[in-house]
Amino acid sequence: MTTRFSVRLVLILSVTLLFAAALSAQTTVTVQKQTVQTQTTSPACTPMPSCQTTPSTGATHTGGGGIAGELYLNAGGVWPTRIDTWDNNKIKAQGVYGLKGGIFFGPSWEIEGSFGYLNHFEPSRAPNPLNFNTTGGFGQPSIQAFMYDLNFAYNFGNRSLFGSRIAPYVVVGGGGLTAEVYNGASPAFVNGGGFVPEPITGTLVPNPTPVKTISSGNTFFTINYGGGFKAMNLWGPVGFAVDVRGRTLPNFYHSTTSWLEPTAGLLFSFGQR
Fold it and tell me: For the segment 18-75, what is each residue's pLDDT rounded down to a tens digit?
């Protein structure tokens, strides 16, 4: 089973679980409402002062119509910092594409699962002067990366703006980033490797720079932190969200790299809490 297939399987299972949990929450609320309505309607009786229908006050309250869960389909970009152990090279700035799903617990807290995809998790410049690769040829293979996190978000409540519900939030969490070399190719150089011209004679000699490579399946711990805002139910269950996070890889080839990771996209809200 390839890394890509494994990540996709986890993504599908996670989204399925999120929908199942939200459907369960929505069903529970519906049953509770029906039970309350049944209990608050008195049976037929003689018109006496003591026989009156008592309206329910608060039993069907759902936190101002709060949702039970949401899915955030997003796209954005990353702008990584330089890496000391890569001779001040850095990962390419590029697009990021992902899916986030959250389930609320309590009036403000939310647990979130997040997946992201980077199409070019590669150095921004060649790892060695002539761009030798590990097979003795030239040019490095393309490298992809899959990011997956478990996060906790705090929502600051709904605000009305132009007739829409706006909710700012902050979020923090951790997870992993797994690399995959395109088509299962040989490991790629990310620093050093190959040969370099000797300064005086021009003869090619082994590159003295410490060699660092990346292979399919290499996984790195990541921390993400930030916040954003959600505009909910603009078109039925569909809304819009903007998310701005930082992401840090604290042990990336014995160094640390971070990047800004802003995204925006469609927000799907479902269920009630």
Answer: 544 444 444 344 434 444 444 444 444 444 444 444 444 333 333 224 678 999 999 9
Going by C-beta distance under 8 Å and a sequence separation of 6 or more, which residues neighbour residue 251?
220, 221
CA angle 247, 239, 230 (to 5 degrees): 45
Identify whether the C-beta of residue 160 lies closer than 8 Å to the C-beta of residue 223. Answer: no
pLDDT, tens only, 74-110: 999 999 999 988 888 999 999 999 999 999 998 899 9
Helix, strand or coil, per DSSP, at residue 108: coil
CB atoms within 10 A of CB 217: 12
Question: How sure is the predictor about 267, in pLDDT bands with cuts at 50, 70 and 90?
Answer: very high
> Does an H or E element contain 267, and which?
strand 257-270
* Burial of residue 262, with CB atoms counted within 10 A of its CB: 0-12 exposed, 13-18 middle, 19 or more buried: middle
Angstrom distance (rounded) from CA 111 to CA 103: 6
The top-level CATH class assigned to 3-270 is mainly beta
What Cα–Cα distance (Å) separates residue 263 from each residue in 77, 98, 150, 229, 253?
7, 9, 17, 11, 27
- CA distances, 254 to each of 83, 189, 261 (Å): 10, 16, 22
Nearest Cα neighbor of 100 from 179, 153, 177, 21 is: 153
Name residues whose C-beta falls within 8 Å of residue 24's C-beta, 6 or more positions apart in sequence: none
